[in-house]
Fold this sequence. Notes:
The longest helix is centred in the C-terminal third of the chain and has 24 residues, at 312-335. Helix content is 34%, strand content 21%. The protein is built from 13 helices and 21 strands.
Amino acid sequence: MTRVLTFLTAAFLVTSGTLAAQPRPTPSRPIVLHAARLLDIETGNITTPGEALVQGERIVEVGASVKRPNDAQVIDLGDTTLLPGLIDAHVHLFLHPGDEEMQTVQESVAQRTITATLAARDDLMAGFTAERDMGTEGAGAADTAVRDAINHGLIPGPRLRISGNAISITGGHEDAIGFNPEQRVLPNATFANNAEELVATMREQFKLGADFIKIYETGRDTVTDGKLTTPFQFTEAELVAATREAKRVGKQVAVHATGDPGALYAVRAEVASVDHAYQLTEVTMRSMRLQHIYAVPTFSILEYFIEHAATPEQAARLRKEQDMHASELLKQIKIGVPIAMGSDVGPFPHGTQAREFVLLVKYGMMPLAALQAGTLNGAKLLGWEGQIGALKPGYFADIVAVPGNPLEDIGVLQKVSFVMKGGVVYRK
């Protein structure tokens, strides 16, 4: 174990000169951050200039001018805007660009876990101070080790909510379909085929450290003439059993669901979020608004697949899907479905997922609403409301700085120049 930790520490030092050789203790000296602007994420008000006083891991004061204790370290961030650390509600730390099915077959869990630690570092350095990892794609409970190593200061990374291996049905989404059956290729999900198996599988995942449960509720998708067809995988009664079991221990269920009736079954079962949410009926959308169930759109992943399509025909087909998805987002916004930012990063490079904010604005959200989707709403969805997602006294000092004003140019979120998490500076 000592040799493994030494190797990982050396790897981080080689790949990023801004990281320390040893786990960083919370600074004992107060820190004053000074910037040209500070964004109130709840109201959209800009304070000029903007300052934040940080003591230990918490914010003490924010405003145009804050107290400056005699022993405070003052960090002048110049012509930047201070805002809360970004929150990505849909990531895959155990995936990287390339053939997803083959990487999960060819790469060992140990190799993929090392890759995940590097991905966590890249996301943090890009300003994402909290994330929800939506399944290890066949790496079991290895995300427990990554989360715990981050929490103990052994490696740098965002605050994490983890799900372990996602749950699906035999022959369903993420099963090893298309391989020689005699080779017994393992699936990228854990199987459960009825309510009893669902509950048993969930209990095992909670035992192994899962913070929440991810269930594949729909797939595979087909789009014909702008209409999405996607079969459901679990019945409403089965999903009710799953959410009841999660609530018994104070946890949540999130579903991969691109359309109905699967999404409606999930909403009626009171899941926490419907991830992807390509095309939903009005009944489903209104129910999500009333029950405050989040849609997590994930536009970035499809854009990446369009740009890296194997053929022009495939690119054209995916572009039609993206256009359909974009038109559906407008309907969700109009009805009042709560939106949380989630990128599905992993199949595209970690650390680049702020592109999702740009696409949310491109497809109809106001810049402030998109920012709130990746801060306030993300904090609520991840169960950290009142702790992160805003710059307020008593909140964790998860703070980033970007050049310019993100309300005028949302693209500046792709240029994070300063990152603090829990009072520790990781990038400046």
